[in-house]
Specification:
3-stranded mixed sheet, about 55% helix, mainly alpha, elongated, about 100 residues, Helicase, Ruva Protein, domain 3
């Protein structure tokens, strides 16, 4: 059996209807009316981390949820009401506190 490549994992993150990034985007928009924004570099960083850890597709959700733990914390607080966007970058993948509120 062949292992999935980084490109395969990126495709899963981009095209799966159950991608945690997409689910989280939809949740934030519908529940607190805030846009959740990421770019291609975030997708690449998550996929690379899964490859580096040797865990493949099984860990995409865990890596993404770990990246979002700080955002989860503030999403339920009144602090978030002053903002309309949460932006994650490739740096957020390794340090969940490195996200942008705008």
């Amino acid at each position: 059996m062949n292992s999935l490549t980084q490109e395969d994992l990126e495709k899963i993150l981009k095209t799966s209807d159950l991608s945690v990034l997409k689910l989280y985007r939809d949740y934030l928009k519908s529940e607190i009316n805030i846009d959740f924004i990421w770019d291609e570099e975030v997708i690449k960083a998550i996929a690379k981390k899964a490859i580096d850890e040797g865990t493949g597709a099984r860990s995409l959700t865990a890596i993404t949820e770990s990246m979002l733990k700080e955002i989860n914390f503030i999403a339920g607080s009144s602090k978030i009401s002053n903002y309309h966007e949460i932006i994650v970058t490739k740096d957020t993948v390794d340090d969940p506190k490195k996200f942008i509120l705008r």
